[in-house]
Amino acid sequence: MATVVLFDLDDTLYPYPPCNRAGKAAALERARELGYDFDRDSFAEFYQAGRRDVKREIDGTAASHERYLYFKRALERHLGEPRPSDALALGDAYWSAYLEEMTLAPGVEETLETLRERGIDVAITTNLTTTIQLAKLQRLGLTPYVDLVLTSEETGREKPASVMFTLPLARLDRRVSEAVMVGDDVDADIAGANAVGLETVLFDPRDEVDESLSGEREPDHRIDAVADLAEVIA
Fold first, then answer.
1. Per-residue model confidence (pLDDT) at position 169
2. Alpha-carbon distance values, 122 to 4, 154, 188 (Å)
3. Does the annotation mark 8 as catalytic?
4. What are 151's strand-pairing partners?
5. Which regions in the chain score pLDDT beneath 50?
6. d(Cα 202, Cα 220) in Å, to the nearest integer?
7. Helix axes 84-101, 67-79, angle to 10 degrees
8. Which listed residue (8, 11, 86, 189) is catalytic?
9. Model's pTM, two decimal places?
């Protein structure tokens, strides 16, 4: 019987795409206020150029997802010189709008309440840097339901690295056989958790994941609503 559920955060407990769109739109508006002559398409190219540089150089680290780095690198490419204050302004605009747009996925609060009533611990195991992930949890109002938060910044390794699954269990004094991992990313969440022997639940609300997964990429369960989790681990 499960005594702990490990949850991914991004695009599992809340929808990611609308937040990312809102963040980019706010960053574009701020860039225009700063005097940059971007339209939507040229800003998208600017953003992607910075993102590609960061991913190429530090992929697999928590910082590889950090928008401040994307904007810092994009501005250096665009201007041929550093512009720290503008990078900070664009990053602030992005994350402020992103957080403002965040809403819980349907059924999350009720599901976490049910787990608490059953005496099941809740851990968040998430890639990205600690500051922004804590801000997301606070914005979503989830901190009262969470027994442990682990970010890839803390471990120096990203999911699917085994430490992202085994360390939460060690800190909560739980065995692998008592744990369930819930996430939307087949490679990071499902394959990573399967590799260390956890029971796995793929959250796929938009029916985007191929049904023919096999081997370590195959989840034990699939759900398209977080509310279904309570039945899966009953």
1. 98
2. 6, 18, 19
3. yes
4. 126
5. none
6. 8
7. 140
8. 8
9. 0.95
